[in-house]
Amino acid sequence: MGRGKLYSSRVVNIADLRRLASRRAPQVVFDYLDGGAEAEITLRENIRAFEKVTFRPRQAVAFATCDLSVRVLGSEIAFPAILAPVGYSRMMHAGGEVAAARAAGAAGTIYALSTISGHRLENVKAATSGPAWYQLYLVGGREAAEGAMERARQAGFSALVITVDTPVAGMRERDPRNGMKELLSGRVWRKIPFLPQVLSRPAWLTGFLLDGGLPKLENIILPGQGPMPLTDVTAALARSALTWADLRWIRQIWSGPIVVKGILLAEDARRAVDEGAAAIVVSNHGGRQLDSVSPTIRALPKVLAAVGGQVEVLMDGGVRRGSDIVKALAIGARAVLVGRAYAYGLAAAGQAGVQRALELLREDVERTLRLLGCSSVKELDRSYVEYPCDWENRP
């Protein structure tokens, strides 16, 4: 799809990019991106919970410019939305992580690279003009993780993201229905029932084949074997559950800041601070792990109260509009991470789609600030919003 079409009246919000992604990507790829765990309750509630936060605008206020910049872990970014780690990005579009990183740099923000990535981390870092973080799973064991951390350090990644909510992969029911396992690793005869969905997306299929087909996981180097095959990830996750003891070991190897992602409870937030986290991401993995947990915007006030300003607090989950970002910052988040919001753009149109997603969100944030009568994201506080009082009552 041409960049011009992304600026047409067809693409005015993230939902429009989602619709275009569903038309370009095979169902198995789109549903991997779009779906959640089990009954997808948390997936839906992450979005719906933002509706419970209402604005308190100041009227008859005018100013020439809006300052959208914010400092996160020592990096000044132009816009308070960070691109979250999204696995299998190269399946969504051949440009994958490289295209997304390049778009993040152009927008003046941070790109966080998933361990489950098809492009080499060195190439991803080289693609962005902005800061980059590396998200680490212990898939492949400690030796493979140590190698990845050293490569990330040498490449210039400024922070390490440790995701703590994946002792096993969540049950994402769309994936087995669509034949994800069979298409990735099954015998030829087992793929046959699922091939029509791939053949019905010729543009995606052409790009996939020209890119060489299934990529290997270039940042998980198994000793004596080389890059891990893409098909080994689910089983490997179950063998590599991360604990607080692992975090202490990681701190001995990684000298830069550590971001702990996947926190929902006050006690876990305090433990992350005690274990040396420089920042916390309030996250339920986009509703893709344990279903029926708290939506992240609802969990945010309790986590903020628990850490008492000792570390920076970020959040992700359910962010589809710039007004969602403003609500999170007004409650107290330093910035947000966006995953699906930009990945829809990636699946729809590669780098141009990611750029359009970020432009839409940025425009939304500035428009919301102006309507609030607030000239800077740094001035946002809880006086600009109202939300249910029970969000703060329980520990």
Account of the protein in words:
The protein has 395 residues and is α/β, with parallel strands linked by helices. It has one domain: Aldolase class I (TIM Barrel), CATH 3.20.20. It has 20 helices and 14 strands. The protein has an eight-stranded parallel beta sheet. It has a two-stranded antiparallel sheet with strand order 1-14. Strand 5 (111-113), helix 7 (121-127) and strand 6 form a beta-alpha-beta unit.
User: Any idea how many domains?
Assistant: 1
Question: Do you know the CATH topology?
Answer: TIM Barrel
User: What Rg, in angstroms, do the CA atoms define?
Assistant: 20 Å
Number of strands: 14
Provide the helix percentage: 40-55%
Strand order of the largest sheet: 4-13-12-11-10-7-6-5
- Could you describe the largest sheet, including whether it forms a barrel? 8 strands, parallel
Class by helix and strand content? alpha/beta
Question: What's the overall average pLDDT, rounded?
Answer: 93
What is the name of the CATH class? Alpha Beta
How many helix segments? 20
